[in-house]
Amino acid sequence: RVVVTREAVREFCKQRAQFEMLDGLLHFDLEGKRAVGFKDLAPTDWWAAGHIPGRPIFPGALQCEGAAQLCTYDFMHRRPDMAGAFVGFAGMNKTRFRGIVEPPCRLILVGEVQTIRTTMFTYYAQGFVDRKLVFETEIMGVVV
């Protein structure tokens, strides 16, 4: 069940058009430390024809971008004093790809708060397709 729509995500994440890697959230709880979002992928998506011709594989960099957008959405709600700020990608650690993401599918993204500072954050993030772990990483973001 979608609890946060793409339109609501747009209020906090500035990416648009092809770079919107978060279609909505399935779980969002400021009392806890975890948010769950999703990206629906189709074989007709803009990246599919070139990565890889004849066998579209969703790029790992875009999977991580989706996780970063989820973490940004969560961070912005935990820091309402940052309203209107832009959060940039500060880095990633311990990134591992554990499976191939092929459309059509729904990529489930999970972000869990590790640390939140004044203008920076770190989240542990994972991606799943059909309940199988396809990637994991540590996402760092910074208010720019």
Give the C-alpha Rg: 14 Å
**Per DSSP, what share of the residues sits in E-state strands of 2 or more residues?**
35-45%
Low-confidence stretches: none
**How do the SSEs run, as a string of H and E?**
HEEHEEEE
Task: Work out the helicity level.
Answer: 10-25%
Give the oligomeric state of the chains in this entry, treating copies of one chain as homo and distinct chains as hetero.
single chain
Give the end-to-end Cα distance, rounded to a whole number of Å.
Answer: 33 Å
Average of per-residue pLDDT values: 96
User: How many DSSP E strands?
Assistant: 6
Biggest β-sheet: strands ordered side by side in the sheet: 1-2-4-5-6-3
The main sheet comes to: 6 strands, antiparallel
Helical segment tally? 2
What is the overall shape? globular
Overall SS class: alpha+beta
Account of the 3D structure:
The chain has 2 helices and 6 strands; from the N terminus they run H-E-E-H-E-E-E-E. It has 144 residues and is of the alpha+beta class. The chain has a 6-stranded antiparallel beta sheet with strand order 1-2-4-5-6-3. Strand 4 and strand 5 form a beta hairpin. It is globular. The mean pLDDT is 96.
Kindly list the characteristics that best describe this protein.
globular; 2 helices; 144 residues
